[in-house]
Design goal:
Shape: globular
Strand content: under 5%
Number of strands: 4
Largest sheet: 2 strands, antiparallel
Distance between the termini: 70 Å
Length: 389
């Protein structure tokens, strides 16, 4: 019982602190890219600015619009905030995975993992929770009694439906290679750089996962849910005080969680960087906690990438977003999954790998060409029908 309580505290505090630091990090990096200073007053280097903003929002008046549904309006922020932390619970935050170890550590005489939960269907759990989070946004927009939040919430649901399929298919490639749904088992299977799933799956599933995850997070250039020029503030236009801050924290918590999940699925998670039998050690840190440092360093790369994308890329148009999801990502992820499946079947049956790969690629190219032809014919028909009116 003591171990469970300790792990709950570790996961909750780690997630909350990581979110606060992510807010500061994004503001500081974006300010630097814009030749500005950024937060620099509250605490050293402005590190306490997020805490100061949270305290300020906590004491502001909690306004509820007259036309809003009060109960749904008040509960919606929690439906976005809670799933963000639930997804973080299945991330292995440390442990010794080197030399075939399974990452189990001994605390207070008991063996455990440095993660709150390690369900046998961990990947499916993360996928389900990421889909549930959109309900908070949808209910927030619907219950506000205003057109701008409603349009933002409709965009959020359509965006999630469009990119969830591609996200799931890219995860299918990881499961196919790792032979497990467990996040700790996936980490165990990536003992060196050559065994990282980003290499084993052929890079394409990782690229698809990264793009689809960016769209699900509503991060630039896919932040159409909160497009200020079109929707004022999107789904949270009518929110203020602590409820607004819950949406704000949920957005950044989801970014941290998704970055850590990408590291876990494709880049070895807490596994140290290893080239064959050569392992890069971090001196003076016990092996059980060295994995936590590696996870942090790898996750920081993706967090910086998200900040860099926000500062540099323009926003997609809504039709471009939908077309890219349905016409590019889903066919590409499905085709690559079929290719990996054919290769796996060929190895199990003893078939020639080159022949299997060649035939699979040929079939996929033909299918893609037919699909694009179908899209172009449909587009021409719509143009013809539109010109008639």
């Amino acid at each position: 019982m003591l171990i469970v309580i300790l792990k709950v505290l570790v996961v909750f505090v780690t997630g909350l602190v990581a979110t606060m630091l992510m807010v500061w990090f994004e503001r500081k990096v974006v300010a630097g890219m814009g030749n500005r200073i950024g937060p620099n007053k509250a605490g050293p280097f402005g590190l306490l600015q997020t805490l100061a903003d949270g305290i300020k929002l906590f004491f502001k008046e909690d306004l509820v619009p007259d036309r809003a549904d009060p109960f749904v309006f008040k509960i919606a922020p929690f439906l976005s905030f809670v799933p963000a932390f639930l997804s973080f619970a299945i991330i292995p935050l440390g442990g010794d995975f080197r030399d075939g170890n399974n990452g189990i550590v001994t605390w207070f005489g008991q063996e455990t993992r440095i993660q709150l939960a390690d369900p046998s269907v961990g990947v499916l759990f993360a996928l389900a929770i990421s889909a549930i989070a959109v309900y908070g946004i949808m209910l927030a927009g619907w219950s506000s009694g205003s057109k701008y939040p409603l349009l933002g919430s409709v965009r959020a649901s359509a965006q999630m439906v469009s990119y969830e399929a591609a996200l799931g298919l890219s995860l299918g490639a990881v499961i196919l290679v790792s032979n497990t749904f467990s996040t700790s088992g996936i980490v165990e299977s990536q003992s060196s750089i050559g065994n990282w799933n980003v290499v084993s799956t052929g890079v394409v599933p990782f690229i698809i996962f990264f793009i689809a995850a960016t769209a699900e997070l509503n991060r630039p250039p896919f932040d159409l849910v909160e497009a200020e020029q079109e929707l004022v503030g999107g789904f949270n236009t009518e929110y203020s005080s602590i409820r607004f801050s819950l949406f704000f924290l949920a957005e950044f918590m989801n970014t941290v969680t998704m970055s850590a999940l990408m590291v876990t699925l494709f880049f070895g998670g807490p596994q140290p960087i290893a080239f064959g039998n050569t392992v890069l050690d971090i001196p003076l840190i016990p092996n059980d906690f060295e994995g936590s440092v590696w996870l942090l360093l790898k996750t920081l790369v993706f967090l910086y990438t998200y900040v860099w994308l926000r500062a540099t890329l323009p926003r997609f148009r809504y039709d471009q977003l939908m077309n890219f999801g349905w016409k590019v990502l889903i066919p590409a992820s499905l085709g690559w999954f079929m290719l990996l499946s054919a290769q796996r079947l060929g190895r199990n049956e003893g078939w020639n790998t080159i022949v299997v790969t060649g035939v699979s690629v040929f079939v996929l190219v033909v299918c893609y060409a037919l699909l694009q032809r179908s899209f172009s014919v449909s587009a021409k028909q719509r143009e013809t029908e539109g010109s008639m009116f």
